[in-house]
TrEMBL record:
This is EGF-like domain-containing protein. Keywords: Disulfide bond, EGF-like domain, Signal. Residues 66-106, 329-373, 395-432 form the EGF-like domain. Residues 1-23 form the signal peptide. SUPFAM superfamilies: DPY module. Disulfide bonds join 398-408.
């Protein structure tokens, strides 16, 4: 079929050359898609009347193809026309343009990489990401200078242009990148080198023993198992290291500890039962006499069990926890042994020994050893006229004041005693029955009572000053009236 078609095309060219522009009644029309007496079977690209350029016309019965080259510019806008063999025109878009060369070629985004950003690439007249489809599986891509730069991410290895695969972190230590006497470990996915225990140095180049003998260490250290360690580590448990000489420690047990300072020092005691009788208490592993330093100056100390009891010696006083001193009279009332509202004064007991004496304060009554209460009065003026202030209480002044058989009448806070009718005598001492013989009568005097510091009273004919009786006269009855001033 192809040979036949080619034959027909050649025949058509020859026929056209002889027939000229006249083609009988089968004239071509502009952009015709069929002809008279023919059936169209192919695409007509360009058809123009009166001998204009025709690229190709295919009919069932015959094919008439006329080539006139690029003379009539058969291509689209901005397209480039090139003649192929036999003068056949070929249209294409020029560099930097894209589109349909038969109709329109549009100018592209770029002509080369210079017209694109550094992270883009000019491809098919467009600035595109150069990483698209450039790298292999699992690879990272970074556009740099219009070029895709592919690399395997951390933890992966392989050809980034083909594929990256995950690596085993431990593989980074095989073979080991470290020096001799070292160990390689993976830390945060990174191989890390360190010296083996007992070795020092640079683990990347090689490690060595810290020491081989004491001289490799400082003066206070010693070489032990190829390491410099403090010489004081030679001391035993609980021991103290006093000093170091020639890389050797001088050890001793602390006070109160027993044992070998190079093996173990242990406490003198773990309980009271481990201590002797003169130091019966175990304090923090040391046997002690608890009286030591417990009491004040001059004080006595005795143990009650393990508890120290401090006291001042006989004839001494003070705070036994601070100081004891000789006893003085003033100390009788320190501390005050008396009750509330009472005062203490140094005194003596019945045997003559010095003792504190307690008295209620003025105006107070009660038991001075326990409690004193304020009295009802301090003077007669605070009591009614028929009562007297006795022992800070307002009481009847007649109580126990007159003689047996005498009568008493309280007047102006005083007891007025007199013998009853038919009796005579001293009403303060005794009243006796009067004699029957007549007695001279005296003119009666006015009776009055005068307060006097010593107790002065004049009643009828007698003057009483204290307990002294002065007679100034007598009553008509001959009886004496007496006033008890006490």
């Amino acid at each position: 079929m192809c040979s036949l078609q080619r034959f027909l095309e050649v025949a058509l060219i020859v026929g056209l050359a002889t027939l000229g522009a006249a083609a009988s009644d089968k004239k071509l029309e502009k952009r015709a898609t069929a002809c008279k007496g023919c059936s169209y079977t192919g695409r007509t690209y360009y058809t123009y009347p009166e001998g204009t350029t025709v690229e190709r016309i295919i009919y069932q019965d015959r094919v008439d193809t006329v080539y006139h080259g690029c003379n009539d510019n058969p291509c689209g806008v901005n397209a480039v026309c090139q003649e192929a063999s036999g003068g056949r025109p070929v249209c294409s878009c020029p560099p930097g343009f894209s589109g349909n060369p038969l109709t329109l070629c549009n100018r592209g985004e770029c002509l080369d990489n210079v017209e694109c950003r550094g992270d883009l690439q000019c491809k098919n007249s467009r600035c595109v990401n150069p990483c698209v489809g450039a790298c292999g599986a699992n690879a990272n891509c970074e556009p740099k200078n219009h070029v895709a730069v592919c690399s395997c991410p951390s933890g992966f290895k392989g050809d980034p242009l083909v594929a990256c695969h995950r690596i085993d972190p431990e593989e980074q230590c095989h073979p080991s990148p470290c020096g001799t006497n070292t160990k390689c470990e993976i830390v945060n996915s990174v191989p890390t080198c360190s010296c083996l225990h007992g070795y020092i140095g640079n683990p990347l180049t090689g490690c060595r023993h810290e020491c081989d003998h004491d001289g490799d260490c400082t003066a206070r250290d010693m070489c032990s198992n190829f390491k410099c360690v403090p010489a004081c580590q030679q001391c035993g448990t609980g021991a103290t290291c006093n000093s170091v000489a020639n890389h050797r420690a001088i050890c001793e047990c602390p006070k109160g500890y027993i044992g070998s300072p190079y093996t173990e020092c242990r406490p003198e005691c773990y309980g009271d039962s481990d201590c002797p009788s003169n130091r019966p208490a175990c304090f923090y592993g040391i046997c002690k006499n608890t009286c030591e330093g417990a009491c004040g100056i001059g004080a006595d100390c005795r143990l009650r069990g393990l508890t120290p009891v401090c006291s001042c010696p006989r004839d001494m006083t003070g705070d036994p926890f601070i100081r004891c001193r000789p006893f003085t009279k003033e100390d009788l009332c320190e501390p005050n042994p008396c009750g509330t509202n009472a005062i203490c004064i140094p005194g003596h007991d019945n045997t003559g020994r010095e003792r504190p004496v307690c008295n209620c304060l003025p105006g107070y009554t009660g038991n001075a050893l326990t409690h004193c209460l304020r009295g009802e009065c301090t003077s007669n003026s605070e009591c009614p006229g028929h009562k007297a202030c006795i022992n800070y209480q307002c009481v009847n002044p007649c109580i126990g004041k007159c003689a047996s058989g005498a009568t008493c009448e309280p007047k102006a806070h005083l007891a007025v005693c007199k013998c009853p009718p038919g009796y005579s005598g001293d009403a303060l001492i005794s009243c006796r029955q009067a004699r029957t013989q007549p007695v001279a009568k005296y003119t009666s005097c006015a009776a009055f009572i005068i307060n006097f510091p010593m107790g002065l009273a004049i009643v009828n004919r007698s003057l009483y000053l204290g307990k002294l009786k002065f007679y100034f006269g007598s009553s008509s009855s001959g009886e004496d009236e007496k006033v008890n001033l006490t």
